[in-house]
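[Discussion] Sanity-checking designs against the backbone

I'm trying to build intuition for which residues belong where. Below is a structure token string of 349 positions. I'd appreciate it if someone posts a full sequence so I can compare it with mine line by line.
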């Protein structure tokens, strides 16, 4: 609250009449004298008295320092610049506006109420993908409604990924603190040691990991992965399971599809039903691989055996409650994909 000069002088006079005390009588007379002004708090009056004793004046001291360059006109220019180029760094903006970085930061955060948000990476979608994604999600929603959520216990979503023994170093984010530059290097072999991992995940359990070391073609897909997977299925799963895979050539070749149809019949979610470029709808992609790599590389495996053991240990540690949560997320993603007509929906999760 800011008091006028008249109000300040009145308070000083009447407080000194009361022997320097801000009494109830002074407060009552102030409210009668200045009915449109709230009665000052005792702390404000104490500060006013201290100022008067020190300076002999009831006026505020003049503020020192340079006049701020952050005028209304400048804020308007900054606003236009940020809306035209929202990815522009504040440092570059400060240079363009001939202002200090702290001044620009204050303008953007306090005056304009803007905040920095992370960019989410997503798979690029082609023009025909939207309709295919919408078609699949509409089918899948009806599929679950017709069979109840229990069908997710015997619906296996499959995928493979490469795990590199060297892990991954982001030179832009990795730092080593030292008083002198230690010149730390992250050596990468010319021919990186890696292992391929294939899994099948349902709401009930995960089959795998199944490891492979060579690029997958249709023959290896059948001999090294599918036969291994089928051998781990129960009789119930063989009779009632649904099998999902993406449209990779090795997956959808005549040899591969013939083997799958012998086991699953028409219970196959693959090319012509599964939409291309849709990792955001596949549990191994939107959940498993990211979680696995963030955990496995924390253990810093030094050999291929240690890497495989770390992958196996992580996958076996996933609980049934986690799998149920993953498939609740899957259903939510399907609905959001429908709501956005097959477009990206990560910002709505």
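Best answer:
Here's mine. Compare freely.
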């Amino acid at each position: 609250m800011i008091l006028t000069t008249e109000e300040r002088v009145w308070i000083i006079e009447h407080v000194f009449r009361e022997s320097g005390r801000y009494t109830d009588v002074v407060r009552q007379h102030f409210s009668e004298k200045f009915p449109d002004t709230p009665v000052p708090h005792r702390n404000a009056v104490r500060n006013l008295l201290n100022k008067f004793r020190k300076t002999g004046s009831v006026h505020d001291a003049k503020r020192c320092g340079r006049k701020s360059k952050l005028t209304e006109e400048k804020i308007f220019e900054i606003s236009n610049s940020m809306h035209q180029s929202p990815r522009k760094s504040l440092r570059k903006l400060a240079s363009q506006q001939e202002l200090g970085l702290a001044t620009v930061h204050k303008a953007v955060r306090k005056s304009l109420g803007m905040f920095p948000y992370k960019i989410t990476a997503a798979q690029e979608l082609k023009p025909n993908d939207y309709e295919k994604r919408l078609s699949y999600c509409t089918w899948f929603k009806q599929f679950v409604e017709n069979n109840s959520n229990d069908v997710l216990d015997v619906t296996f979503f499959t995928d493979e990924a490469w795990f590199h023994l060297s892990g991954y170093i982001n030179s832009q984010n990795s730092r080593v603190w030292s008083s002198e530059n230690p010149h730390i290097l992250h050596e990468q072999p010319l021919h990186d040691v890696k292992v391929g991992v294939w899994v099948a995940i349902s709401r009930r359990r995960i089959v795998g990991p199944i490891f492979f070391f060579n690029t997958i073609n249709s023959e290896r897909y059948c001999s090294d992965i599918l036969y291994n997977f089928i051998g781990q299925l129960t009789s119930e799963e063989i009779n009632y399971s649904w099998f999902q895979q993406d449209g990779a050539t090795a997956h959808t070749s005549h040899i591969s599809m013939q083997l799958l149809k012998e086991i699953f019949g028409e219970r196959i979610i693959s090319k012509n039903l599964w939409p291309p470029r849709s990792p955001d709808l596949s549990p191994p992609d939107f959940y498993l691989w990211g979680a696995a790599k963030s955990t496995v590389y924390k253990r810093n495996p030094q050999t291929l055996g240690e890497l495989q053991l770390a992958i196996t240990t992580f996958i076996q540690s996933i609980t049934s409650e986690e799998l149920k949560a993953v498939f609740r997320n899957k259903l939510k993603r399907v609905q959001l994909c429908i709501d956005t007509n097959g477009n990206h929906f990560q910002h709505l999760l």
